[in-house]
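job 3f2a | input accepted
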Amino acid sequence: MDSQYTPMPLFLLLMLLLATGLNATLAAATPAPEYNEEEVISRLQEIEDPLFELKYNSVVGGYIRGYLYRNSRHKAQLVTGRALLYFPIMEKYLAEQGVPEKLKYLSVVESALNPHAVSRVGAVGLWQFMPGTGQDYGLAINDYVDERKDPHKSTQAAIAYLKKAYDKYGDWALALAAYNGGSGRVARAIKRGRSKDFWKIRRYMPRETRNYVPAYIGATYLMEYYKAYGVQPAYPELDLQITGSVKVYDAISFYRVAQLTGLSLDYIRKLNPSYKRDLLPRNEEGNFLILPKRVLQAVTDYLEAQRPDHLADAFFAEDRVEAAPPAPEQYQQTSYYVSGTETLPEVAKKLNCSVHQLAAWNQLQSDSLWAGQELLVFFPREIRRFQPMSPMPPLPDIRRLPVPKGPLRPLCPSPAALPVVGKWYYTLRNRQTVADLSQQLPFLDPDAVARLNGVEQGDKLPRGTLLRLN
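job 3f2a | predicted structure (470 res):
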């Protein structure tokens, strides 16, 4: 890799971020070119690796006009900006499942890439799952979480649904129709029309379903050619762009995440829309926590430190979280120079970022690169870590004393040997279980103590918990 690292002057970085935030305003002053139907048809035919033949008719044209003209132009700016956040996640799972990458454009039709989107009938999230269907495909919906809003889990569920529909019909257009209207309606349309060609049997489907594939074609055209129409994506700030995720199995609050990372609670909520109570509940299969990469390692360090013999929680005062607002100086600019015949995906993989990020940072008009081309790249200036304590030095060897013969008398009698003058309590000094405590106090009956306090022997209890012993 031929790269040169040069810090960007602060005022230039500020100007860049301000310009990013003003994209929507600037786009309003950039008129779209006149709609040319022949050009649209030609461009549809030029799209590489389509899901199916991208036919053009008046309904498709209506959707394209709706995305790029009229009052939806501001929506196009938001959608193309949000793609920077969600398309890399979708592309990862689509590639892992071996299904076409352009299925990601279906989420544009469903939610305009808004994880909080709610339909008039109660469908929720990026992929607009109804409660029953979401639960059928493994998405938890309860008082603590709605995984229909989780970009990782909802994408995996949508892929599972679409793969099942494709395996049944052998056609992606019919799979999309089934995603919208259900397999039953598609099966009845096939039976009535005596064909598996969507365009021949669409008249036998409900209006919304028959227009669903044209809507997908319109969304595909938008995402492939928005630059040609002067749409300026409303890109989010760098802290929302340069993110990573970690799977969390034990419960952790947004408050603790804020203490670890220095992020505001609003920022954590924005990146993790599926959690209802500012809390990741305990989950044996794991919950995804999405954070800026510059602070993700601090949370990973903390999670690794959560062992019964560790005092990680003791390092946090129970006072207010003082969250520093995101600042431009938290990121540094790098210049990368393209060599040989490198492609955009190859460069993105080498720089550990996404194709969408490179395109946004450099305002690329196409995926084509040339030798010697300079690409601007942003990376965190510092990776935040969490180190609750340094390892203790080993203790010196102590000379062993002979053990006296005969019965040993305990230094402290057990509670059973003492007169009962009241209730006995014990305050936990570490985060531990009743079973752990019984190892320290051998005279305890862990079953009796657990029942007395209404907990399980294996429950992790926080430091400071008051346990009744008798």
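job 3f2a | The radius of gyration is 29 Å.
job 3f2a | closed
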